[in-house]
Amino acid sequence: MDKEKDILVGKTLSDFQELARERGWPKFTARQLTEWIYQKNVSSFEEMTNISKKIRQELEQDFEVGLTPHIKVSTSTDGTKKYLYPYGPLKFIETAYIPEESRNTLCVSSQIGCKMGCLFCMTGKQGFQGNLTAGQIVNQVLSLPERETLSNIVYMGMGEPFDNLKAVMKSVEIFTADWGLGMSPKRITVSTIGIIPAMKEFIENSNAHLAISLHSPFEDERRKLMPIESVYSLPQLIDTLHEYDFGRQRRVSFEYIMFKDVNDQKKHVNQITKLLHGLRARVNLIRFHPIPGTPLEGTDDATIEWFRDELNRKGIKTTIRASRGQDIEAACGLLSTKEMVKMQEPDF
User: Fold this and answer.
1) Domain 6-64 is in which class?
2) How confident is the model over 70-93, as pLDDT tens digits?
């Protein structure tokens, strides 16, 4: 049986330096590899022309670059594209490319499925099927047909990024390092439901933006929507954020999906204002588009606009996020769930 080859996508410069030491390759081989893989985006060792033939033969024998192409793409009338990637039998993840006038954003996934069980999330209904490696996260960018046009990355796809912290941090390093993709950390946002220990590590060891899934400013309501509230409460979360100075260059934002008659009243405006007092933060209001198996409904546009105006009037910078890709089931988890179910169906 053939020995499984080691994947190179997802390795950092220090990983490559260690590999060069182990193999007895010249030190500069490490930099050459990061340049070819992350900056020149080659997928074969034959193309790495400034690396000696002997080393290329070793690489061919024991390693593979490890890029995985998408197997399906859905394109929306608004230009949003959703790519589907296979990562094992009956395991799929989604990546959404969202073009706008001033930016082009890629929404990447960090896990296959999710264990957090939020009431409004389709990915959670799949259950947890595994963590993505740093390479599988980075692959979503490297294999993107629109890679050259990409300006921003958000970790808001499938999974909870801070439940897979090591791989997420490694992928952020690859995206931002000068030997990697060289992106500004200000163009990367990592979203979390509020796993506090991992969030602290992220804040202390990264300069990327942080987004918190809020969805209700009241603990009892939030607990019904998001079971994590029973583990890491809102007061703990807000107190932790107050420990850090985010300065003018780094942003913390709060994601707030609006549910009809659940979290869209005056009392919610008042409590959000109280909760976020003293934090330099913004609130992003998000329209909810119903998913199968949830009792929740989306708030109407007039109420969402009123909610935004009230928060802004109280000094909380608030915007409404534009809905994108609804005709291609852009809600996280819908496309991969459908593919998973289709693959399980008997072929008559």
Assistant:
1) mainly alpha
2) 999 999 988 999 999 998 777 889
